[in-house]
Inverse folding.
């Protein structure tokens, strides 16, 4: 649920947010944060944060938001003047991601989605997903989404608390590429077996040699929320892209159905994991 404080006291000290919210409330018909987000190419949670002051838009984003809300003339000039006062000097336009440095708005939104999701479906063809990584493995593959301590907190919230249905389709190369060496991979595979035994997540292996499917392009995570809304997060080399368009999300859902058909069952996956763990334990480091 988007957060929209209704009192000036709650927005005290946040003049830009207060001004943006007043214009938003004055629109008739009033657009939803989702409508505005689609128009600007950002998530609805980002728009909500601009309106409640927990996230400060750049001057360029404020200008785009003014256009989306139909703010013109002196009101527009006043709004942009306030934006130049409160926007951090080092702020840069949010163009979806910020690359290798810092955490983008979409990264923050993706982490928030992870907390809100009632169901997560993830496809990871080449590495163990963040939420299933043991600590030694995690140190070898820093995440786009968080540092190691935050990753542990995310695992506790999603996996250990069992509040979220979590299904992972895992490519076999994620198990055969020995991240951190034999010892680290043995620990990691052992942890995957524990996850299956404790039914903390449904892990299903996708073997090589299956027919072409769109998942061979790369990994993704599909987040479903209790309010019926869904989003997809795609990570690649420090960039995080958040997809909310229903048609695009629907295509990823169809891809999930394809993976469902070609993946091994959790029971079959466990047997493969046991074979891999046995080979690792008999291999010299």
């Amino acid at each position: 649920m988007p957060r929209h404080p209704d009192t000036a006291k709650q927005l005290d000290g946040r003049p830009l947010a207060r001004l943006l919210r007043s214009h938003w409330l004055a629109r008739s018909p009033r657009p939803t944060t989702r409508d505005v987000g689609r128009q600007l190419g950002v998530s609805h949670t980002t728009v909500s944060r601009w309106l409640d002051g927990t996230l400060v838009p750049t001057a360029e984003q404020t200008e785009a938001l003014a256009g989306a809300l139909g703010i013109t003339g002196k009101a527009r000039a006043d709004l942009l003047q306030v934006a130049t006062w409160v926007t951090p000097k080092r702020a840069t336009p949010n163009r979806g991601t910020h690359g290798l440095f810092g955490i983008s708005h979409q990264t923050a939104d993706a982490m928030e989605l992870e907390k809100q999701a009632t169901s997560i479906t993830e496809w990871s063809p080449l590495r163990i997903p963040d939420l299933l990584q043991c600590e030694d493995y995690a140190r070898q593959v820093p995440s786009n989404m968080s540092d190691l301590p935050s990753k542990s907190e995310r695992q506790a919230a999603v996996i250990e608390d069992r509040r979220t249905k979590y299904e992972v389709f895992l490519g076999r190369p994620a198990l055969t590429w020995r991240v951190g060496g034999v010892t680290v991979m043995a620990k990691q595979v052992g942890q995957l077996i524990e996850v299956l035994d404790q039914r903390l997540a449904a892990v299903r292996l996708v073997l090589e040699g299956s027919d072409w499917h769109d998942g061979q392009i790369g990994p993704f995570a599909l987040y479903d929320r209790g309010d019926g809304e869904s989003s997809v997060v795609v990570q690649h080399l420090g960039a995080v892209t958040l997809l909310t368009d229903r048609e695009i999300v629907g295509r990823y859902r169809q891809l999930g159905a394809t993976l469902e058909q070609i993946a091994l069952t959790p029971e079959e996956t466990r047997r493969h994991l046991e074979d891999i763990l046995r080979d690792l334990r008999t291999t010299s480091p």
Observations:
- The first helix runs from residue 15 to 26.
- Residues 96 and 217 are 20 Å apart (CA to CA).
- The two ends are 50 Å apart (CA to CA).
